[in-house]
Specification:
By secondary structure, this protein is an alpha/beta fold. The protein is 39% helix and 25% strand. The protein has a single domain, classed as Rossmann fold (3-Layer(aba) Sandwich). It has a six-stranded mixed beta sheet, sandwiched between helices. Strand 9 and strand 10 form a beta hairpin. It is globular and about 55 Å long. 39% of the residues are buried. The structure holds adenosine-5'-triphosphate. Adenosine-5'-triphosphate (ATP) binds next to helix 1.
């Protein structure tokens, strides 16, 4: 479905990404782990066409994401959820307005306008909220509820891949656990693929079948989560795991 091959990016002579290569298959949940400044968000921005890689290719079902027409077509299929849900929502808009903008952009051509309310009700239920949230503004929601709305907004497009860029970082630990459970459920019920970006290996490991370990812009290790956790090959991966007090559940 997605093939990233040889992607490099340099800012002011600093190589932020070097020859990054990986794939994501339909329904797969892939974790991208690396410390702050390792290039994770730059990679996400390249995938969303918010940045241009200096080198390399990104193919979506065999067509280059650099091609404008492919890029436009993929906007619906590849969605992103950012770290700070409050900043991702317009403070002057109700939740209904935020969802409506996505609906107009991605669904208006194939759904009747009157279907909008049914779609929103279903999506809010899917993310553990209800219709009463539609009339609320971001300041009337907790940060965790805002993130649920951001996830619902990403789902409006019926994407095949969601990039979750540090989407749990602004949440406290108990709310993180609820959102992880929500993402697991959505993964199972909607067969959506994830690229789950985080610096927290415990969180990534609880959600992802496969891991990419990014260190100073280079993918130093990739493979099945359980294999990497059981037998990390690269010293950087070993150092990440050494910082974890106990391994996630499936080791
Ligand atoms: N637009 C830019 N111009 C110049 N340098 C940039 C730009 N964007 C990112 N960088 C630099 O590229 C490096 C990687 O940044 P990036 O945001 O991709 O890291 P990250 O792994 O996502 O970090 P974090 O986990 O803190 O978000 C950093 O050194 C950053 O300062």
């Amino acid at each position: 479905m997605l093939v990233v091959d040889g992607v490099s990016k340099t800012y002011a002579k600093k190589k932020v990404l070097q020859n990054v290569a990986f794939t994501i298959a339909p329904g797969e949940s892939v974790g991208l782990i690396g410390m702050s400044g390792s290039g994770k968000s730059t990679l996400a921005r390249c995938m969303m066409d918010l940045e241009r890689p200096d080198e390399g290719s990104m193919q979506w079902y065999g067509a280059s994401l650099v091609n404008k027409r492919v890029r436009q077509a993929s906007r619906k299929s590849i969605q992103i959820v950012f770290q700070d849900p409050r900043n991702s929502l317009n403070p002057a808009w109700t939740m209904k307005r935020s969802l409506s903008e996505a609906f107009l952009q991605f669904q208006a051509h194939q759904s009747r306008p009157q279907e909008q309310d049914r779609v929103f009700a279903e999506l809010l239920e899917a993310v553990g909220l209800n219709e009463s949230f539609l009339s609320r503004y971001p300041h009337e929601l907790s940060t965790g509820q805002c993130q649920r709305v951001c996830i619902a907004r990403a789902l409006v497009a019926e994407p095949e891949l969601i990039i979750l860029d540090e989407c749990l970082s602004a949440l406290d630990v108990s709310v993180q656990a609820q959102v992880i459970e929500l993402l697991q459920t959505l993964h199972q019920t909607r067969q959506v693929s994830y690229l789950f970006i985080s610096h927290d290996i415990t969180v990534v490991a609880s959600l992802c079948d496969r891991l990419l370990v990014l260190h100073e812009g280079i993918i130093v290790e990739q493979g099945r989560t359980r294999d990497i956790l059981a037998d990390p090959e690269h010293p950087y991966t070993r150092s990440l795991l050494a910082d974890v007090p106990h391994y996630p559940k499936f080791t």
